[in-house]
Amino acid sequence: MTPAKIKTFFERLQAERPVPVGELDYINPFTLLVAVVLSAQATDVSVNKATGPLFAVADNPAAMLALGEERIAGYIRTIGLYRTKARNVVALCALLLDKHGGEVPQTMAELVALPGVGRKTANVVLNIAFGQPTIAVDTHIFRVGNRTGLARGKTPDQVEDKLNKVVPRSFRQHAHHWLILHGRYVCKARKPDCFACSVADLCAYKPKTTPDQAAPV
Do 123 and 143 lie in a common domain? Predict the structure, then answer.
């Protein structure tokens, strides 16, 4: 995709969602971090159902650590891999208190050193909580990047690297939200809604789907 097409691509996504927002519920940087850790291999809807009651009683590392692994597991038992995630939440809370004064760090290196936190999680936190122009490559962005030709790569890290090179700086802050939401609601995994896509004419995917080929909701 040429630089001119990429600029048009993001102009159209911006026109659809001028100020995009993530779909995970959170209160502060800490609860956002926990929510993103819990969202691995789970839907945002399922995470929000579990974290509402959890964050009502524990919205900081000390309170979360005081709950303990078993009680945290009880709150998040409807989420996949909940026992491993509960263990990671306890461990990251302990580390936040021990090494960061109970505050969420604002660098990639410090974030990925926390239990259960990879580059994707770190990028989401840096972008949403701290306003850094990072791009978190989840399954939706990986698919959109490869399918459209915007940023092809065999791994999420490769797609992230390419996006950081090709996305115009003026769109960098919201790029990952636009791409995630586009992948979630239009450029779907099983069958994209090309007929309803604002960037279909810029996209390398063929053949384009028609309304009668739309995947059932």
Answer: no
